[in-house]
Every structure is written in structure tokens, then in C-alpha cells.
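The aim of this short unit is practical: by the end, you should be able to scan a pair of folded records and say something sensible about each. We start with the first protein, listed as its amino acid sequence and then its C-alpha cells.
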Amino acid sequence: MTDASLKTTPLNAAHRALGARMVGFGGYDMPVQYEGVLAEHRWTREHAGLFDVSHMGQAKITGADALRQFERFVPGDYQALKAGKQKYSLLLNEAGGIIDDLMAGKPDHDGLFVVVNAGNKDEDFAFWAAHLSGDAKLTVLDDRALIAIQGPEAAEVMVAHEPVLAEFGFMDTARLMLFGVDCYVSRSGYTGEDGYEISVPAKDAERIWNLLLQDARVKPIGLGARDSLRLEAGLPLHGHDIDPTTSPVEGALTFALSKSRKEAANFNGAERVLKELAEGPARVRIGLHVKEGAPAREGAEIADAEGQVIGKVTSGGPSPSLGKNIAMGYVPPSHAALGTALQVIVRGKPAAAEVVAMPFVAQRYHRKPKS
């Protein structure tokens, strides 16, 4: 894809003014780094990193029948979701494969606010437009930008602008006036750190971005560090760690399967998903510590202790926080137990690896005490 054919976010000029190195991602011209991936990764883990995620797809699904219609294609219980909450879910095809993973919540009393991945958003929106029925209506919010602020100082930064945000816990969401404009805000993110995602009108995005960067605790962070942060957090990237052939069970995403939905078995792909829950899948996503040699990147083969190839790496690289190489990939369940000795084939040479628990680095989401 040429630079001329790439789309731009409302913050493109701001990135270039900051000297960002730009690359094509998900069809968009996006910043991969500003001062360097390692420095940006560490800043986010220690302070507050600011991310442009406006390439993601934003939409509302409204109507009296919106929640029931939405549930036909996801395994989460959204009809029981309380106002002011959101949850992670999976858009499934009829075979139980993951068309996309997404966030959907109830920031107001007007249906669902949904955020989907950039590379899949056109397909996702076309899918819903074709399959929603009754009075359920999809409205694509292509006049909005999306900004994420992540890290241990993110809450302090945001509370200085709006004190009510201190009351949010992980996965709380609301529609409110923030920075003088109409925003959708959730306490969530894709780094394993505490933080917020803020949907803002596109015309106000650059002003808000620059305002947040005036705080000494905040620095702009590119997609390079976003990827290493999410890898350490054990979070899958669609199109790499999960795809339309992957089931929620294979992808180790069974937490997204609500109990009531499993019992009702009334979502796309339920037959496959329930069978895999009962009998086990053919493969499963695992975490790996690559104990020697170069990092094992996407596509590297995974072999058992005897050298027999049994799977592939789907994401991998150095962990700045741990000072060692880590990876995710798929192997048969017989080789997925923690502590299992495996090998990864990097540049034609086998290197020792071990199955380890995910997340690799502890997630630090802000969870409110249960009342």
C-alpha cells in the first residue's frame, strides 16, 4: 500500500509536528514511534502514555431490539449489562471463528457504543448492516477520533480535567462533557496498565491531544510500544493471534463466554464452541519464554523437545519490562501445560523455550472493591 493510498486520522498533522516516524497500519498512516520504542514502552509502564487509536472503528447500535440482535453474533450477555459498563467480546462467524474482537458498552441509555479493530471495521460494519434486523440500527461514528491514555499516572492526569473520572473502575464507561465537548469515556485500554479511552469529536482531537501533552507526566506513544505493551499483557492481536479460523476456546478467550449464553447456545458458532469446551480444542494459545538466541517472531515454528514441529508463533519479541524474549503461539493441548519444554525455530536454528503463564507482566487495571 502506497503512502498516497493510506487514510489519515485527525491527529496526523500533530504526529508529524512531533517528528513521529510514520508507517502504514490497518490502512492508515500511523506513528510507529517518536523517540524510540524502548523509551516509549518504559514511559508508559512508569508514567502516562498518550496513544492515537482513531483508526479503530466506532459505532452505535440502537433500537428497542438492539441488544438482542447484537447478542446473536457475540457470546457475551449484553442484555444483562448494566448502564455505565462495557465488556470485551468477540464477533463470531457461523463456524465459531473470530471475525473480530471488540469492546461494547452502555455509556448512555441509547443502545451500545462499539469499538472494533481498524483492519476489520469495514467488514464488521457491513456484517452488522446486513444481519441486524427489526428496529436495530447501526450508526457508524466516522466523525470521531479515539485517544487512549495509559499508565500508572494516567488517572491523576485525567482526574485533573474531570474529578468524576476518579470514581471509574475498570470497564466503567460514560458519555459526558469533557474538555468542553461530548465524549464517550471508558476506563480500559490495550496495554495492561490502568488508563482511559476517550472518544472525541474529530474537529476537537488535536486541541485535546495537545492539551494532554502539556502535562509533564504525559508523552506520545507510537504503535511500536503499543504492540510490545500488549504482548507483555498477553493480549491477542486480531489477524495475528486470533482470526476467523480461531475459536474463543482455541484463543484462550473463554472469559468472554457468558454463562447464560453458553446455557442458551444461541449465538453464532455455539455448536463448535460448546463442543470444544466439553472435549477440548485441537490447539490452544500459549505463552512462551524463549530462553536463548534471537526473538521468535510471528511465523516461527514451534517444536516439541524432540524437534517435531507442532505449532507456530503468532506474536513475539523482546520484553522491555522482563529483559527476555517472549512469544505467543498455538500448540496442541498436550504440549500446553505450564513448564513444558519446547523449541522455537528461529532462522533455521532451534532455541529452547518454555510454556509460561500469561500475562507475562501483571496487569494493573483499576478494579473497584466489590460492595
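Turning to the second protein, read its sequence before its C-alpha cells, just as you did above.
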Amino acid sequence: MKKKERLKRLLAGERLAPIETVRKQKDGSMIEVSVTMSPIEDDAGRITSFISVSRDVTERNRMEELLRRSEKLTTVGQLAAGVAHEIRNPLTTLRGFLQLQQQTHKVNPEHIGLMLSELDRINLIVSEFLILAKPQAVRFQEKDLRFIMKDVLSLLNTQAHLYGVEFSLNYLDDPVFVHCEENQLKQVFINVLKNAVEAMPDGGLVKIEIARLDFEEVAVTITDKGEGIPKELLPHIGEPFITSKDTGTGLGLMVSQRIIQSHRGTIEIESEVGKGTTVVILLPTSASSRRPESES
């Protein structure tokens, strides 16, 4: 938000959400600060001044980044077995066709097309896995949420099948652009979808829906019919070491919430024991998604 817009809202009496920026100290070093601004009113309700409070959040941000990386490594490790299994299938197909051609001494154009398709599949899986695993600088870009979710599902499909779980993805044909750090959003979706899969040991269907609420906001809704979360735990979900899993740490959802907050969004969770859980991730759309179709 620009300074003029913030001033306009302050003059209207609004209390603005904190913004994070960088400030220089007297010794010349730079620190990250969270700045909060609020209007001060007199007895008649007139705004007489403003108050600005800056808080050093350098250490907090550093700890959160370390926590994010730690959780990402845990997620990558858990995905490794599924990725290896997913790669083995096309490799078996490739080996079979090559053996056939070795025996017949003939090259079948149809077989070549299938082998190239399987190689493309392997390349896609490995590329997505490496993108998730490799530490990268945080860069917010305009991305289509539909393609981010498809990439995530391609990584998780094998693990889901091992649980007897299937994914159902539903979205509109129009692009849904958000201003985001793609790898961080993938980490959030992977965390939520893995929780949904693991909550359904007997298998079932996990529904994913991407829908615009209006030109300003998009909702990603993930619904499972799993074991659900006990009522007494729901208010504490997102706190470290609060989890309904025997071997869980609760850090996955905590990291996910921090990531979504940094994207100016929210995570809402509804759950009932024995009936399942619904997670709704709300994100602001980017400028491209806000234009009416007649202008695009």
C-alpha cells in the first residue's frame, strides 16, 4: 500500500495492519522492523495526531525462516519414497520397450512416442521435487493458482494411492492469478493435503476446489472425510506441538499459517471427529485476476 493511501485511511480513522520494512540503525547496519500506525482522537472524536510504533523483528523473521526450511526438509524426506515409486513405473515401461526392440531389432514409432512421454513424466516429477527441495530466495511473482495446485497433486498422487485416496480437483476455466512465492504456496498445499491423506487410513476422496469469491479474493477449499480433529484441539491448531497425530509435531500447520499470513491471506479450519475436516485458504487475487473479462 502506498504512503498516500495509508495516510488517507489513517485520516478516515482506520487502524492499519502492521507493515514490515527495513530501517538503518545509527551504526549503519540494517534491521527488519514491523511498523504500526494508529490515529489519536480528542474527546470530540477529531483526529489530532498519529502514533507510529516500530518493532525490531529481525531475529523473529530469522527464526521463522529456519523453521520454514526445517519443515520443508521434513516434507521433502516424507515425499522421497513416493517420488521414487512414481519414477520407477515409467522406468519399467522404458526398460520393457528397449528390451523388446533389442530382441526384434526393429524400431516401432509408437513405442518411441510412448518412451518419450514416459521420459517427460520422469523429468516433470524430478523437476518439481528439486524445486521444492532446493533453498531459493523468496521472490513474489504473479502465478496461476490452478497450475500450482496441479504441480502439487502430481507429487502427491503416488503417496495418496498408497493410502487408497484419490484427489478430485475442481476449478473454473478462467485463470486465477495470485501474487505469491510459488514454492512457499506449494509447501502449504502439500502440508494440508498430506494431513488430509493421512487422516483417511481406509481411503476415500479428497476434494479440492479453487473458486473466486469476488474480484479481490480466491478460496482454495480442501475437504476430507477422515478421522477429524477433536473439538478441544481445534482452537489450538497451528500452535507448535499441538497435533492429533501420534507422531506429529504441529509445526507443519504453524509454518503454513505463517506463509499464508505473509501472502496477506488466512487459513480457516472446520472439523468434526468421525466426519472429516475442511480447510479453506483465502488469498487476495493479483491485478490480472481483478480485471473484468471485458477488459482482458
